[in-house]
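Sample intake sheet
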Amino acid sequence: MLEELHETYCDRVAFFVVYVREAHPEDGWVLESNREAEITVLDPTTDDERAALAETCAVGMRITMPVVVDTLDDEVARQYGGWPDRLYLVGRDGRVVFQGGEGPFGFDPGELRGAIENELA
């Protein structure tokens, strides 16, 4: 649904995916569903390794939005509480006008759609 929002509003809203710390690396909290899907990655130890994982993720998930990558110090994730995932809308004035719930259960693109529509009104 996020891709649908991007397609609908991309002429009026800049969309970015910020790739943050890997949620389920082999040397961390492993999900069986990842193994079944043959997704096995190690937590990166360099910014270049994280960037490579972000690219693999974007290609594998067919993400069409621009993807930017948080550095290994996880500063963006810390500042925005964006781990493992979260939706934000930054208004025209540069202030956060919408902060979605913590993912994965609070990840609700429908709420973001409403915030976008309010901001554009």
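Comment: The domain at 2-120 is CATH 3.40.30.10 (Glutaredoxin). Helices lie at 2-9, 32-36, 47-60, 75-80, 109-120.
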